Amino acid sequence: MKIATYNVNGVNGRLPVLLRWLGEAEPDIVILQELKASQEKFPRVELAKLGYQAIWHGQKSWNGVAILSRVGEIHETRRGLPDDPDPMQSRYIEAAVNGILICGLYLPNGNPRPGPKFDYKLRWLDRLIEHAATLFETGLPVLLAGDFNVIPTERDVCKPERWREDALFAPEVRDAFVQLTSQGWTDALRAVHLDETIYTFWDYFRNAYARNAGLRIDHLLLSPMLAGRLVDAQVDIHVRGWEKSSDHAPVWVMLSDEPLHTRKRAKPRHLAA
């Protein structure tokens, strides 16, 4: 099963890019962020033509998250975090899809720092950590995915010295991400690309994409049941180079149908009955 997360940066304005990528990559489940569309303006019909059903939590002009599936019904379990510090902002959606609990999130940017927006980001992270712990303790196959607006380490950003004062790289934010992953979640992209330079976002300014001056802020975190099924994790970097594309690229994981360590190996031909 192929599961992707993609900050589309405007689902209607960049719909041709989204549809092109869906047709090319053929992900089974997709988590979208930054829809920038009210509930009634979500392009449900266009996505259905490609075989995707969807649920979404829209917000006019800002934020917005969605889950798409072409591998079965989407059973919504939650929209908005428990004790959400600002429930008017559409930043979290959760649903059971094909045996996996999918949690799609768009974490606040937090700039400028210090200030109210940064304080809101920290409060939102606290609520996410608490809810993630509850989900983790169920032992179910759970995936937390989306635009976290967190640069976890120096290797996840080009020229980290330029980001010292930014809310995406603040010590409090990075510590919170460590607190989250320390619950037992596997950072899928980093698990596959241990020490590699790999980014998911490139600013529109200063020719960042061409220079590969990027950030890794889009993450897929796997519970142990899913981590044992991890086959691959990649970034569709080329999509960022398409005309009128988002400043993010799609990120995806490939999961096997069963834990890799429990798969039965085929017998050598000379031993086969």
Automatic annotation (TrEMBL):
The record marks 218 as: Important for catalytic activity. Residues 4-248 form the Endonuclease/exonuclease/phosphatase domain. Its cofactor is Mg(2+); Mn(2+). Its EC number is 3.1.11.2. It holds the Pfam family Exo_endo_phos. It is an enzyme of class 3 (hydrolase). The record marks 248 as: Interaction with DNA substrate. Belongs to the DNA repair enzymes AP/ExoA family. This is Exodeoxyribonuclease III.
